[in-house]
Amino acid sequence: GIQVEQSPPDLILQEGANSTLRCNFSDSVNNLQWFHQNPWGQLINLFYIPSGTKQNGRLSATTVATERYSLLYISSSQTTDSGVYFCAVVLGFKTIFGAGTRLFVKA
Amino acid sequence: DTEVTQTPKHLVMGMTNKKSLKCEQHMGHRAMYWYKQKAKKPPELMFVYSYEKLSINESVPSRFSPECPNSSLLNLHLHALQPEDSALYLCASSRPDRGLEQYFGPGTRLTVT
After folding, report:
1. CB nearest to B42's CB, from A41, A94, A97
2. Which A positions 86-105 lie with beta carbon below 8 A of chain B?
3. Which chain B positions have a beta carbon within 8 Å of A9's beta carbon?
4. Contacts for A8 with CB less than 8 Å, ≥ 6 apart
5. Relative to the CA of B27, which of A61, A67, A107, B71 has its CA 20 to 30 Å away?
6. Residue A76 phi, psi (nearest 5)
7. Does the beta-carbon distance from B106 to A45 stay under 8 Å?
8. Which residues, 6 or more positions from B63, have their beta carbon under 8 angstroms from its beta carbon?
């Protein structure tokens, strides 16, 4: 089946720093989403991005479908950005999540 | 409105109990999902309903029984669970016009004693 790999697995940032999270996937997919899971378990939609580039405030994402990867950029990080970031790819109705990047932003 | 609601938020049940989890959305989505998430792991797909019909069952044990009474509601009936079934259970729904972009509820944290 399709493989989804995220890197890095863990990341510690000083508040105000920038970072890039990566998601590689092994096959063509219908769509790709980025989520942020907060400490209470809620999965928050960040981006629906099967291809191209999108920006939302301090966050932006780029998916290069032909090369099977997606990047999530976080600029000027804040402590509230802490949590786990998942990419998820969809093939038909099946959704496969990567293992996540656990981010901690220090004040 | 992009809200998926789940009840209860927390549930503690014994191995002989029968309980149900409930999920509701009013976004007109026609696909609904159940996921199970263990600590420090990603969500794992359990079931998918499309237009109120079961489309995917990811070889889930029969002690978990899904039900989709209408296009807005999704239930997960639980019976004779094991302690290893303790997890966060997440419900999601998706839009048919956006490549199945999914929206998640807040989850039910289940503990089986």
Report:
1. A97
2. 86, 88, 90, 93-100
3. none
4. A21, A101
5. A61
6. 45, 60
7. no
8. B78, B79, B80, B81, B82, B85
Whole-number Å distance between alpha carbons of B98 and A48: 9
The mean of the pLDDT values for chain B is 93
B98 three-class SS: coil
Residue A5, both tokens: 């790999």
**Confidence class of residue B98 from pLDDT cuts 50, 70 and 90?**
low
HSE value, Cβ hemisphere, 13 Å, CA-based, for B70: 5
β-sheet bridge partners, residue A89: A32, A96
CB contact under 8 A, A93 and B100: yes
Does residue B42 belong to the interface with chain A, where contact is any CB pair within 8 Å? yes
The 8-class DSSP code of residue B85 comes to G
A26-80 pLDDT, tens per residue? 988 878 999 999 988 999 999 999 999 999 999 999 999 999 999 999 999 999 9
pLDDT of residue A93: 80
- Asked if B106's CB is within 8 angstroms of A93's CB, the reply is no
Nearest residue on chain B to A99, alpha-carbon basis: B42
| B104, B108, B109, B111, best to mutate vs chain A, most A CBs in 10 Å | B104
The pLDDT of residue A40: 86
Q: Which of residues 53-82 of A touch B (CB under 8 A)?
A: none
In the block, residue with structure tokens 């409105």: B1
The confidence score (pLDDT) of residue B1 equals: 57
